[in-house]
Amino acid sequence: MKKRDDLTKDMPAIPATDLSRRRFMGAAAMAGVAGATGLGAAVMSRESFAAAAEAARNNFIVHPGELDEYYGFWSGGHSGEVRVLGVPSMRELMRIPVFNVDSATGWGITNESKDVLGHDNTFLNGDSHHPHISMTDGRYDGKYLFINDKANSRVARIRLDIMKCDKITTIPNVQAIHGLRLQKVPKTKYVFCNAEYVIPHPNDGTDTSLESSFTMFNAVDAETMEVAFQVIVDGNLDNTDADYTGKYACSTCYNSEKALDLAGTMRNDRDWAVVFNIERIEQAVKNGNFKTLGDSRVPVLDGREGSELTRYIPVPKNPHGLNTSPDGKYFIANGKLSPTCTVIAIDKLDDLFAGNLKDARDVVVAEPELGLGPLHTTYDGRGNAYTTLFIDSQVVKWNVADAIKHYDGEEVNYIRQKLDVHYQPGHNHASLTESRDADGKWLVVLSKFSKDRFLPVGPLHPENDQLIDISGEEMKLVHDGPTFAEPHDCILVRRDQIKTKKIYDRDDPYFASAVEQAKRDGVTLESDNKVIRDGNKVRVYMTSVAPMYGTTEFKVKQGDEVTVYVSNQDTIEDVTHGFCMVNHGVSMEISPQQTSSVTFVADRPGVHWYYCNWFCHALHMEMRGRMIVEKA
Length: 632
Ligand code: RUQ
Ligand code: CUA
Ligand code: CA
Known about the structure:
With 632 residues, this protein is mainly β. It has nine helices and 40 strands. The strands form nine sheets. Strands 8, 9, 10, 11, 12 and 16 form a six-stranded mixed beta sheet that branches. Cu cation Z2 binds at residues 129, 178.
């Protein structure tokens, strides 16, 4: 790797007008932090501070009562959830529990959530990295959001009309689903997702050697959420993206060495990006040219070196992010241990697969030197790319066309600007950047460390998601956004691209199993308040209308397995009720016109109160009732 001095020699100096890292903190906070941390240094004058703050304010302040222009969906990292923010205000609007358990909504506690998560052996953790929104013809269609779970090798789907997770699929025969992107064209038929680590096959303890180990590229059907196919690859897999023809997907591999130790993973100067030929893969599946692994029925194809299904393009070194440009022309692989990004021309891939090129590297049309630790690249739709530099703690704006000219030997400077970010950025994401509509207005940079940017909260720090105005020539930092562990990536969509329901439809499939059970019990959920006994199973049906449950007392016997169904009869937007059975670990959300249910064992005789735990009315405290458990 080159030394930093060599790398930056030909680059323009960082403009002096770059915003100071403290410019947008309130004066009082600035003084406080400076005092608390001993970082007294360069505090700007009151006037220039005010001017800078005012200039920025014009760009990003969303006044009380005003709505944001964009929805932002953030992954929650090892919190396992998805968060919804308004951009540019960076106000957190909602949390969508997915791979985690959530006390507020009852996710992981209710039967409806267990229908999605699985009723047995439900994991309590997850690690969500990459949220992506379904597309039609390369544009966000606002139907679904998909996200990976690296921790437990799953892929989840969120319905964006109600902002709830409605399906989770465990990917068989692999470990650690990481990079995830969607087919863009003609529509999101497949969710492409990479399994990061190689494992032996079969993985039953009989053989743990690397010779019998591999990992797979996976495609999940976006509608059925069943795994459509898996492709065995050489090396490992990290991030991925799809093109705008529907023909290709491309993934990075940082461990071409298949090493187990850290030093080993850095042995090769080049690893690769592997391109998947989706048409050929589909044809092979259709022709039955596949095998299966273990108990799984999923078609498994061999995409290792020499296969007609894949091509391996050498790129330096331990590459990480893989990002398609919104003009559909390039896959860009981010070098991580190399100061470069590798620009792959998608229109040369047909020739590569046809065998018309001498060398796989012939598809590379630029390899600009950007700085230390390039991880992810995003685009403004005006020909510029923005790459995070983890080690330099910067975002570099560069021009793709100029980088290509430079690679062809022309004397052009492709670097436009470098901006300090705080600190150590992973992903960055520009508004609408993964679609044809990339509009170059906002850039979010997800910094892994916040150190001295916020009031100290003990040894564990928040992350810092910074908002940068990229609408002009110059990038301008306008907001610091502390976040809890640990967003990896986000996606910004125009607010008109998302259509949400104000209240539930009574026939929403989200609670269809409760509706079916009520039908079998001869219960009308909308009006009946009934207790149905079925052996030692007791089903308690009740309505809720602010501020009353339809049932304020019910009796069961010690040891009964009790299921409580609450159907919210309010039709007014925002009047959500809750149901919490004290000392039973039971809590759930019931939004207007929703039915929710929860099952628990009434194992202790006596009186047990239940109450509404979503504030719904002036008499919300009075919304309660008693379960009486008779001694067995
Ligand atoms: S990938 S930065 Cu999942 Cu980069 Cu996190
Ligand atoms: Cu119903 Cu609070
Ligand atoms: Ca490597």
